[in-house]
Fold these 4 entries.
Entry 1:
Amino acid sequence: MANDTANKTLKYWGWGYAEDGLSADQAKSLLNTISEGFGIEPSRDGAFPTMDAITLPTPRIEAPANLSKICTSDTHDRVVHSFGQSQPDSIRIYNGDFEHAVDLVAYPKTSADIAAIYDWAGNKNAAVIPFGGGSSVVGGVTSDVGCNFNGVISVDMTRMNKVLEVDPISRAARIQGGARGPELEAQLKPHGLTLRHFPQSFEHSTFGGWVATRSGGHFATLYTHIDDLVESTTTVTPVGNIVSRRLPGSGAGPSPDRFMMGTEGALGIITEGWARLQGRPTYKATAGFRFTDFFDAARAVRMVSQAGLFPANLRIVDGTELKVNGAGDGSFALMVVSFESADHPVDTWMARAEECCLDVGGVIDVDWRNNPEANLQGAVGAWRTAFIRMPYNREQLTPRGIISDTFETSTTWDVFESFYHAIKDATQAAIRDVTGHDGAVSCRFSHAYPDGPAPYFAFHAPGNPGGDGTVMLEQWQEIKTRCSDALIANGGTITHHHAVGRDHHKWYEQQRPALFGNILGDAKKRLDPKGILNPGVIVG
Amino acid sequence: MANDTANKTLKYWGWGYAEDGLSADQAKSLLNTISEGFGIEPSRDGAFPTMDAITLPTPRIEAPANLSKICTSDTHDRVVHSFGQSQPDSIRIYNGDFEHAVDLVAYPKTSADIAAIYDWAGNKNAAVIPFGGGSSVVGGVTSDVGCNFNGVISVDMTRMNKVLEVDPISRAARIQGGARGPELEAQLKPHGLTLRHFPQSFEHSTFGGWVATRSGGHFATLYTHIDDLVESTTTVTPVGNIVSRRLPGSGAGPSPDRFMMGTEGALGIITEGWARLQGRPTYKATAGFRFTDFFDAARAVRMVSQAGLFPANLRIVDGTELKVNGAGDGSFALMVVSFESADHPVDTWMARAEECCLDVGGVIDVDWRNNPEANLQGAVGAWRTAFIRMPYNREQLTPRGIISDTFETSTTWDVFESFYHAIKDATQAAIRDVTGHDGAVSCRFSHAYPDGPAPYFAFHAPGNPGGDGTVMLEQWQEIKTRCSDALIANGGTITHHHAVGRDHHKWYEQQRPALFGNILGDAKKRLDPKGILNPGVIVG
């Protein structure tokens, strides 16, 4: 029953499978870089509790006969399903805070299973938390739902992980909501097709989770969110199913798909959908450019974004972020540009993008010409290696009392520079006030649009020396609050692609138009009249 | 007070300004083509009623003092605002059927004016019909709202027609909802920027109308609907304003903009919005290809759509449609491909698109190489001329008893051929059953997506010989019903970009997920608790 793939066991204390993580050398290097570069030192050398040491509350609810075969109250299952991959969740696990652990984990295999879970949970007044890959970094699957429920059941969708149909003519596939990235790509591969939606969480997130949270993939322009790749959706709600038509485009009233996307399990579970696919790219090129001024790099992104070239990758990373990740010395910002195509050589596209970069002072880091390995070379390659490894860092940092987190947003180009300073300064000030030390606050662009970038901020800060994890959690919360206040005050979005979850809800309520909040509340009453679905998420 | 621009008076019996239309020769040529090509003959030589001959019902409501300055019950204003540009509206005007004429026309200048109209109309139980350019071809502004209201007021938005702000850095502008296409482009031009959203109705439709109806522009790929060009919206509803943030991209819950887009005035009036702009294109190329087989042309569209080239134009027109419009002899289908850019030469893009077309049997109609006038030459040029003139045809045909209409949809590539035959056959059978004659039923693609085309059907049919317009209206309704039934039965959308209006509502209710219909109904109760806004549209 355990949440395994290919006989691997999911880690309960951090990212990925139990057997995966940083090597001892990599962990040492990470700590050294943060220490030497920014004076951020470990305040302790703690460890996550072992499974043996974890005692969970007795489950408050027990699966009825008709659901017993797909439900478990196994301790490992309950622990893994009680948290996502956020900084506060990591601290809670470190602290052994399992007071709000889910009571049951269900692994439905069919929509009928889900409907039966809803019926039973509704009668029991148990909260239902949909669970895809469990990689939410915003408390989307965190099981502390308050005291209004008689229990919490996590609905793990990963048994519904099939690609049900492939339409090679239209290049589309019907994919079940519980299919994780590698699983769905493996099923598409024999057809010569690919979804090519690669969020950083790709390995541990699901198609349904992507749609429910409006996830951002590796396409830095054009198809930035899964939204753009969705042709139709099927959502199972407590009062019935919402099934939209397969339509390449439509102007018939407001889009039902666009309404369900981003509801984060609060209105139903997205059990399947038709997704638009790509041919497997045969032409690729990657180039890297260094800029001494981050804002020059930003100008290059703007020029390329507005040129109508639609690169697959178009990212910049500031000097601090390169330094934190051992990919630079802090003296330059890096821009990475990639084009890919299953149809045609991309040289003309890349040549024009390069002109834009050189025009505003970029210096070639790695040359793309006749260089299929460019993505592995120079600062570009070093950054790529660090990026892939990044999700494993936190399990090293939390036990050592080092707070690390990221948040992402978007803003328009006209105000970008002042926005950047406001957010960065607010973050640095919050870290100083809370910890008494400077933090390492950095920025990259995860996605870019003709009208503005999606800046992605990261910070590392030294948690309270010698303190326990409770104080660390409070410190994180204060820093998070002040960063989020700054995002909202400066006109940004509380999230560009990480989703709202429980952690962003307060600011989401400030951001969304109040009357639209009422509409969502009415929809919640309509689709989830007993209010059991992912309480506290999207609809407060 | 009349709805004029630059001292021109709007025609009440058809498209455009009173002074515009087909020349006598052009009208004769149109009738000859239909007669000689398809045996469709005029059954009468009637005329629309003159303004002198029109008697309207006495207005049932009178503007209160606070609104009297912005309201009128002038006959011309009332007639123009009681109908859109649909075939049934044209017949109703021909028939002199002004029983349901609007009682009042209001020309608000501010959001406060609109709020005052809502308050007053709510108290009077008067229906409020938002009116942009009045070019709805689906009954979106048609004033027959049933017998539950004490009056009808048309809210003409064209006094709110300013571009309020231009942000040249982000390439975006804040545009009032009542700005017609030419007005808003004229205001953007000094900034070197353009929205480049050119629906066929461009001259007589407004930015707010486009957003409310999810209009389709001239971009045949990528930015097909106005949806894609909208950064934020402001909607004035009877219970307050819904204002979204300017965000290039966001994943914070379901998009409030995407929910308001397509509500067609049933939930509020979109008074302004920020729109994403383009640089004015300096590089352009147009090519034309002839195909003996329409489905080969469709295959070429699919190849180009899936190649990631994103042409500005990518349309095919079948032999019948070319023949009806005097741009071909019926023996070939035409494909038009255009690329445009403000940034870079488009030769590489066009060369690859051309390869796709030639690969599936296309023959060059006009060559794009070193040919800036290609769009004016060959069948491409002939079609272009006919296309621009097309909206003026109906005022020639209705008085002569010739039924002419269009409808558009979308479907996926895998089923396109069978879909095409099913729709075309259903239309032809309906025309035969209803009129006893064959019609001219044709198809083009208005827009194209990687996963499917947006087929646009047109038909001409001989109305009842010697009959009056009442029978012609019934004939049209029966044909329309059977075409619409076929669209829904075959998995299409009832509209790709013409909107739902009153004419499509019955089929829209079949198409949209039932629970989503409930959500829209709840939103209507929330935002328009007295149910006065555009009754019968979107929310039944």
Entry 2:
Amino acid sequence: MRDTLLSSLQWRYATKSFDREKEIPAEDWAALEEALRLTPSSYGLQPWKFFVIRNQELKDSLVSASYGQGQVAECSHLLVITVKRTLGQDDVDHWIEVIAETRGVTIDSLAFFRNMILGDVVNGPRSVDGLGWAKLQAYIALGNFMTCAALLGIDCCPMEGFVSERYDGLLGLAERGLTTAVVCPTGYRTATDKHALTPKARFGREEVIETIL
Amino acid sequence: MRDTLLSSLQWRYATKSFDREKEIPAEDWAALEEALRLTPSSYGLQPWKFFVIRNQELKDSLVSASYGQGQVAECSHLLVITVKRTLGQDDVDHWIEVIAETRGVTIDSLAFFRNMILGDVVNGPRSVDGLGWAKLQAYIALGNFMTCAALLGIDCCPMEGFVSERYDGLLGLAERGLTTAVVCPTGYRTATDKHALTPKARFGREEVIETIL
């Protein structure tokens, strides 16, 4: 598994050109969706909603909202990771209900945990920049997703270069209390994408890792 | 691989109690370090430094900086993901040099890319909250790391509950222009950690995934 992991992470790259003819098989995409769903988040709050855009017209119209980056239209599945604009007591209560149901315990038995979340994310330190906090969680999902995709031999291109207001508008997110955090076209590289062949550039181990013995 | 991925993500959980006697084998840890190093980031800028704390005295002293969470002291390897407090032209120039060297191209040939980064991260929109942006990248690393650890059968517990000023002080980060973004004790669960046995709670697929056909 060690070798598989590292060769997959070496193999992946920010794909500049997707093969329009190649579609991700349903079983692989279902696994990626499930991987997204299982992503860990702080307090388990999952302050996200994942949009999977397969509609070609919509993908085409999102290109100009992505500074002309064509991958958005070419890819097989366009993943748009959105987050809740604000987190309120309702969100926490809903989460507590899901935990109670999953574990077969009472809501009351989770009061301490509920108050801890409320006192941090809703009324406490994390609420100062609740949207920023939600986006951090979204990036855990992005990191998890990209690694899982690579392991399945599926290409993607994480993108911060987009106009969130335009994505939000085209997807009708604002009225649902959501906003776009990050975008990730997913599919398969073309045989001619020269970026696939350039050696991967990273800082050396000694520069980014420091061990304290 | 699909089944391996999903069973690993199901198997993992935020470990509440680590076995102090169980050390992560060197080859596994080396793979996790390499996975961290290979983490994708926006513009490839890698605005991070990963600290691996193995020193028991230091781990012990970080418990109170983590609101008493004992995993910090019990774990085999304490991963502390730190980020640069500010990103300047020097950081961009260094990154451009590394790309040029890796790919065997001239610095001049990367001028367009260099200016794009400077006009966004150093002097443009991302510089408004440069630290917040750097932390987003750190969370990609966290997501990648947790998935890789799970695939290697290694436990971890991502933590936002710590006093960053105290971590920064104990690790001498401020004077190096770094600050703690997120912490992740890593090792092996104890046989008695009851949290390992509670069913994983997540929102249902229909709640977090929306497909637009």
Entry 3:
Amino acid sequence: MEDIILAIDLGATNILYGVANVKGDILYKNVLATNSNLGANYVLSKLANIIERLLAEHNKKGQVKAVIVATPGPLSHLDKIVYNSPNLHWNRVAIKKELQARLNHPTLPIMIEKDTNMAVLGEYYFGQDRQYSNLIYITVSTGIGGGIIINDRLYRGANGGAGEIGHLVVKPNGERCGCGQYGCLEALASGRAIAKQAQERIIQVGFPHIGSKEVGELARQGNSLAIAILDEALDNLARGLANVVNLFNPNIMVLGGGVIEGLQDLWLDRLVEKVLGSVFKLNAQNLKIEMTKLGGDIGLYGCVAAYVFFKEGQRV
Amino acid sequence: MEDIILAIDLGATNILYGVANVKGDILYKNVLATNSNLGANYVLSKLANIIERLLAEHNKKGQVKAVIVATPGPLSHLDKIVYNSPNLHWNRVAIKKELQARLNHPTLPIMIEKDTNMAVLGEYYFGQDRQYSNLIYITVSTGIGGGIIINDRLYRGANGGAGEIGHLVVKPNGERCGCGQYGCLEALASGRAIAKQAQERIIQVGFPHIGSKEVGELARQGNSLAIAILDEALDNLARGLANVVNLFNPNIMVLGGGVIEGLQDLWLDRLVEKVLGSVFKLNAQNLKIEMTKLGGDIGLYGCVAAYVFFKEGQRV
């Protein structure tokens, strides 16, 4: 009977959850809407419900060794408090404590990590097989975020706030961001930003809902406004990533998230060219930039990686 | 008889050099113009000359254990090659090899490190007494640069290019930078940038030479153009530092360099307020931002710190 873990990737839109063994085989997975507009209490109870149901089904012989939860940040690392989350709209929620209080399993270990940190652990361990000591993972999805591996360890900074790549200000006095600042990368190049631009600038849309996917479709059909919107977003994304490369000089930068996956054919080659062409030559040398192969399950893989590092006694 | 080292801080303008013991007492120091416009060969021979003279004077009993040189970057860490240095105008100079070839002391260890890395080592070890695991040092001088301590170790990145804080693009399509890009922090808030603005915008200067110091004097006298120039530079500097804080979440950010030292009374409080007010609350919590107490000798202290770490067998 093999040890298994419950892996939960809490997103602002969906909760992806599953059961996995320590080799990274995902034995079961499912997705539910987060409905974060209903508030923290609702979401926490929903998470507790999911965990209880998974335990009832998969823990008959006590084989579930831990619950690992990826949460949107900012997450204070030591006390596991979510602060002023622009995406969840949680102001100060002690996610670990609140979750434990809602569960009937006082001895079951719960590990909480910021979603982007979990993703970079998954990429480092399962995606790249631990071959790169300095790896940065960037998600371009509804929002934009990043996780950082430095010297083969997760880098969280002084209290868990490192890696807020989406909130690099790349355009002073630019569009307002959910975080309250103006001109953040997330406000210029995320799925939400592209959709907002499209709603404002593309009049004849022909789509009941217009998001980055639809803008991509229009661009492929030659729509000049859609092309302009994506070009601007791409320029800003490249500028943000170039800043990250000049600061961190990673071995590899891995990209993931629904938006960039959907726009890969339009964006990836140009993005790589723009970034490599604008950073210091030394920093461009040998730099790999590629898409993750883990797709939307990267957070679940990250949960497994976090558990493995924890079991190995490594400081992740 | 105590062990001593030769410490050399090569700058684009001056070469500061000295003799120090491992406790960080600077026993002798002097400064010479670099005259970097005369080319790499000239500068390397000058460095070799300085070293030979210091050895003749201070190594009579073999007490000099190493020569430690801080150089402007970008510096490829493994092969010690300076690449495309915007300040020295060196394109590809193997500084360690070239220096060794000019010296008559084949067994004397030579350590080379990027100047900003050396400075952050000095600050971490002598300035802050190793009490902060995640420390960022930023120099605002003729140029702008940074050094990074992560988890109590110098962070160089994959090949030595980490920490190029001066080349964060904070204003797309902004002023052209010496590195070839547009809108880099260094092109907007360095001493050179402030002087350039002053030369372009302040007509009645009353100063034979106008640099950041003179602009500061004019601002203190109420000159509105000087005030505007410094306010713009400060805004950009704050934006750059806020980006760094959101990415690295350091315990402490230490500032140094002639320009910010000269403008401290006008800038420091406002800079701290701007940075703390624009980063994530989690990242602002407990963040210290202060001036270095090591002044212009920070590079020399860094040479000592680098030697001490090397002797202790630590990977700096």
Entry 4:
Amino acid sequence: MPQAAPVTTTLNDVDLAAVGGLIEKVKAEPGVAATTWAAEVAWAGGFRSEAKVRTFAPARSDEPAQLGGTDTGSNPVEQVLGALGNCLAVGYAANATAAGIEIRSLRIEVSGNIDLHAFLGLRPGHAGFANVSAKVHLDTDASPDAVQALHETVTSTSPVGHTLAHPVAVSVELA
Amino acid sequence: MPQAAPVTTTLNDVDLAAVGGLIEKVKAEPGVAATTWAAEVAWAGGFRSEAKVRTFAPARSDEPAQLGGTDTGSNPVEQVLGALGNCLAVGYAANATAAGIEIRSLRIEVSGNIDLHAFLGLRPGHAGFANVSAKVHLDTDASPDAVQALHETVTSTSPVGHTLAHPVAVSVELA
């Protein structure tokens, strides 16, 4: 479908009316935009745990054997990379649809580097990702300019992308 | 088990020898600490996607109906919160075991606030979490001082905690 095609709510299987409705609601009542999200994690022995979100089945987490785990699931830092890719996918789907761009396929490779010295207690300082990169494979008929504009909109509005790129106030307390 | 109990590799079901071995390897050859992690996301229509890590089954992602999704899985920002809880669980398990502290149970509630204005394109700026909080429910016989020391070690060495708290260089490129 060329990019100039009329936007319908079925393009990319995105419910554009729902998104538009939310935007109108927030414009009318800005407080609606204040959202709280949650997850609950239960330790399962060793480096295994499960994260539960709302009513979904708990997702398993572990560490690879090299890090002392039993390798029964992705590890927490891999989950962060997956979350970034998923967030970007939502961004491309939403904004492509709003722009009348059909996505034929979309695949996102995400990777990141961590120096383990801080995690292992061998050096103080930043224990997290030094950097994170996402490579976006977007198949569409849209013009290069339209794709570039889409890309800029997505990266400038990505909740997970911004959570990583900006310092976030993190508080961890013993209950 | 009191905190002064001898450390064994079965305490908390943590393979302390593997973690110790990694620390020795990194001390001998610091380059071993340079690690790269990855995930690959495939868009599945609408706001649905799947994140694949190594050989594990792809994990489903979606958005709730209020955000225009079909609510078939946790959303990306919830996944970030789950990853933080999982990461903290690894940190408590590893460092409690190293300190000879038995964990009877561990549960971590994580929540965070996002103002959707930026995500919805209604305002420029930070689209991610304004803040993230974790409440740690740790059941153990260890003394309050030992638990506090454990807590400080965990929060000062958490890869996901630090990834959120520090600005990370994020690069998103069209392939």
